[in-house]
Each structure stands twice: as structure tokens, then as C-alpha cells.
Design brief:
52% helix; DUF1266 domain-containing protein; DUF1266
Amino acid sequence: MGTGAAGGHPAGQPVPDVWQPPTEVERALHRAGEREDWPAYYRTLAATDLFFPMRRDIVDALPGVLRPAIFRDPQVRGLCVAVFTRGMLPPPDSGDVFERGDLLRIAKSWPRSASWLAVNPGTPVETFLPAEPRRWKRHARRAAPEPPLKTWFTGPLTGPLAHGLACGALLMVSNGAIWNHLGWQSGGYSEERALLRRWWGVTGRDGWLQAQEQLLRGDMLPAAWEFVLEVRQVLLQEDGVPPKPVQWREAVEAVLVARTAELVDRTGRPPDFDLDSDIALIQKLIGRILRYEARFRADGVLAEDGLVRSVLAWDLGRASCMARWGLGARYCGQAETETAVLRAGETARGVYGSWEEFSAGYILGRCLHFDSEEYGDWYTEMLAAHRLLTADPRSPWRTVSFLAPAGEGDLPDPRDLTDL
């Protein structure tokens, strides 16, 4: 794609006429290489994650230790180090894994014996860059952040699978990951395992299966959250208008009292819980929900008269991501990941009527879990992702229909919007 010490070595792989760059990164690298615009090439390369292929047994033995493999290529003289951009990563399998780095990390740990950095070797956009660690550091320190919305243009873009993947888009966009990448290698193999261990206590396949199933069933949500929202929905359906807060509180209390009386009649024993204490906690929860909804309306997450229908989206959105985390960590296979993603999308369609409704439910669940009415990062990160996903024409929430995932033919293809 280019020659000379300032650029790269000509790639040996011809670029097919019908080749589709999988993400904006590969598109930008390809264009820069064709023009031999090496400053633009390095700006793109310095701003993105780079992945090193490594043997799985080595990474399992030394997680987090980056030891890139050195190889020879007949196109260049000298040893090479291979890196791949995220769009060029192959599907996860049982062989090699990929560890994440970036241009600065490469420059700091560059092996003196290597003469070339092979970017996406063996692909239509392979490029061999001469070893210039000092130059790489300068580019890395000036690198601008990547846009948070990332699409894998050669991945699922329409249909039920894309819909299920888009259910995890709030978290994907917030994390700067590709929203529709099944392999979920954006963090690298050992990072995915560390994430699952730290946040979920998952250290193997059995733990992943249990967590995945709990999320898909909505069993990780505290039952009280969904209970109070279900009571409000019943009142709304009966009266045709949302209940006043007092009416909602009284109805919830009446249901709790009635259920406790049924339990006493059935068992012949007093309850083993403090009903008054439970009622007080539920009333406090209703107050939190009402205050969050007021903030959501002020920030545009809800319409002026909008209500959160359900918080099941909090589990379903994470289920969509958990499926991919499991694949990236090699705790499951691709077929299992696809099945879980499809289940998450199908369940979401049975509960919500739009991406906006789904988003409000997810954000409320996240806030009830983490935020404690501080409206800090746990909320503001999701608010920013919500606004991007609902406004950007390239967003899956604008290109994938929520209720009819198999018939989005009239919606714009995000690949046609990449230059916006």
C-alpha cells in the first residue's frame, strides 16, 4: 500500500473489487494507504485498539502479559510483529486468542529484533510498517478518541440477530465497542475473562451458563422492581390513565397485604418476614422510581408523559452482552451465543414497543442498581449513549426495526451512511 521509510511496504494481498471494509477503521486505513497518506494512516492506527495473536495456553498461563509472536514474511526482509484491527479479527475458536494493545503499548515494548509491524497480515489490507517506535509514540500521544458508535459492516445489520445484538447497544456504545460483533474480542481474551470474573464471579463455562440463563429469564433483577411497575401497569390498563402516586402506593400495599393473608391462610403460620418493613421499602422504591422518571423526562429519555413500563431491559441488555463475553472468553461456542442473543431480542419484543421504551427500562434498572440517586457516571454514561443511539442515523436503533426485525428492508443501511 506504500513504500519508503515514512510509510509501509507494498502489501502482497490484492484488494478485491467487491471487498467491504468491515469497520470505519479498515476503511480509513485502506483509503490512506491507497493515497500513500501516511500521516492519515498513522492517525487512524494510533487512535484504535490493536490486537496481537497469541497462543491460548501461553495467555492462560500468563494472563495480561503481552508477548507478541515474531515471524518472517517473504515480502520483507527481517522479522515482523503482527497486529490486527478489530474488524479484521477472525471468529473466536479454540486455537489462537487475541490480546489488546495499542500503538503506544507496541512502541514501549517493541522487540529490538523485529524490523516490521505487520498490520492485518494475510488480509486484503495488510501493510508492513518499518519499526519506528519513537514515531509511533508521537502519533499515539496526539491521537484523537474514536467515535463511540462502531458498526461491523460485514456483520449482522438487519433481522432478528441484529435486533438481539442491538439490545446490548447501550453498553456497547458506552464502552466504545462494536455493537454487532458476535465475537466480542474488543477487550482481548484475558481482559474478557478478567471482566467476567470481577463483575460477575464467572470463572468458567458453568458460571457463564448460569449467569446467561438468569439474565435471559430476568432473574437477576430484584423482584420488587418489576412488581411495583407491574402494579402500575395494571392500574393504567384499568383506568386508561396513569395512577397518581398515592393511588399507586396504596395499590401496592393492598397487594402485599392480600398476598400475606393468603400465605397465612395456606400455611396456618404467621409470615417469616416483617410485612410493615417490606411495605416501607416498597414505598421508598416507588419514590425513587418517580424521581428517576422525572429526571428522565427532563433529559429526554422519556417523553413528557412517559413512564417506564418494565426494567426487564436491564437484564436483557446485559444478556445480549453476556452472550458475547462468553464467546470472547471461550466459555461457549458461536451457536450458543447466537441463540442467547436471539432469545434476548425475542423477549424484549414481547415486553416493549420501541427502542426508546427499552432504553428507559434499561437505564432505570442500571440506576436502581448502581446510582443511588446521585445522577453520576452510572446515569450520565447511559444518557449519552441513549442520545447517540436515538439520534444518529447510523445507529442500529435507527436502522433495525424494534417490532419487525425481519422486515427492515425500507430502513437505511448504515453502510450507506458512513460519510455523514
